[in-house]
């Protein structure tokens, strides 16, 4: 759409015709975008009028399930798959490098559901796996560290960093609701007060202070919470292997929608 969503046109014709599950757009050039499909990655340089396959280094049949672009260097793009871990390009999709268990992922975490590049430091990248585990990279994806386990066996579908305090991280799961960390992922606690649907597809926040955090659920629509810590910086105190957070206020549902896996 070029009219704020008032009307839309199909842009992929017959080129992209299999399961477009991820899209990222160039942050300063509106003509450039990338689509993650069931047949790898495709790129447009003319606002969607035409698309080309950009899969050098990615097998054509690879299913892309998540993507993220480095807004400070838009030639750097990450693509998560449902079988081959993660791919990264540093030249706008011309070539891709496979990042695998040799780089720090567990063997069973080949399905990367979500990717988040830290807006304040693009060397820091988070990914969520289908198993419910979260990984963090401090070197732009070269190596990965497994963070403290979220109390969930459900897939991590979305990871968001607080726009005003980079230590605060939110993770949405498909079955266990939302979790929050106040120490960059070292400890996690659930924050599900007011949520009647624990199957979260997507998580997003605004730049207000305190922030509004939104989640899109599997069957009961969209929920919102206004989130703030009582103290600044946020309080985190360890009790054994648990964590105690100064917490947020209640969530509520304000619209509904449908979704699929």
Structure in words:
This protein is mainly beta. Helix content is 0%, strand content 39%. It is built from no helices and 22 strands. It has a 4-stranded antiparallel sheet with strand order 1-2-3-4, with no helix packed on it. It has a 4-stranded antiparallel sheet with strand order 5-6-7-8, with no helix packed on it. A hairpin with a 3-residue loop joins strand 14 and strand 15. It is globular. Residues 231-261 have low confidence and may be disordered.
Helix content: under 10%
- Identify the strand order in the major beta sheet: 1-2-3-4
Average of per-residue pLDDT values? 84
- The CA-CA distance between the termini, in Å, is 25 Å
SS strand fraction: 35-45%
Counted by DSSP, the helix tally is: 0
The rough form would be described as globular
Gist?
The chain has strands at about 20-25, 35, 40-45, 50-55, 65-70, 75-80, 85-90, 95-100, 110-115, 125-130, 135, 145, 155-160, 170-175, 175-180, 190, 200-205, 210-215, 220-225, 235-240, 240-245, 250-255. It has about 260 residues and is an all-beta fold.
Describe the structure using short key phrases:
261 residues, mainly beta, disordered C terminus, 39% strand
Question: How is the topology of this model organized?
Answer:
Layout: E1 22-25, E2 33-37, E3 40-44, E4 52-53, E5 64-69, E6 77-81, E7 86-89, E8 97-99, E9 112-117, E10 125-129, E11 134-137, E12 145-146, E13 156-161, E14 169-173, E15 177-181, E16 189-190, E17 200-205, E18 211-217, E19 222-227, E20 236-239, E21 242-245, E22 251-255
Antiparallel strand pairs: 1-2, 2-3, 3-4, 5-6, 6-7, 7-8, 9-10, 10-11, 11-12, 13-14, 14-15, 15-16, 17-18, 18-19, 19-22, 20-21
